[in-house]
Design brief:
Alpha-Beta Plaits, 4-stranded antiparallel sheet, 107 residues, alpha+beta
Amino acid sequence: MAQRLLRYVLWVLPEAALPRYLVERSFPEGVGIPANEAGARLLGTFVANNGEHGVTWLHSYIAADKRRTFCVYEAPSPQAIRDVAKKNGLPVGEIHEVRVLDPFFHH
């Protein structure tokens, strides 16, 4: 119940939280993050760099062909996402401000 109330408050009062963004990225050669310790270190570096800019990486979706990702962030601005992406060596395509629409919240 508390989680649903929090979601409602964040939906009704969006200024109570950082804006949320969906970032589309293209990787012509495919995403190449290894599923091992080196990959974990790389992602940890991304998270640390993001934090320096007030950006929080929430989660990502990767296309079946591994050539596009759709990443969800909370950030102070699209420019903060672009800045940290540059530092992380990641491409940035489209950035869209989004809100959560939870199908289980509405009855």
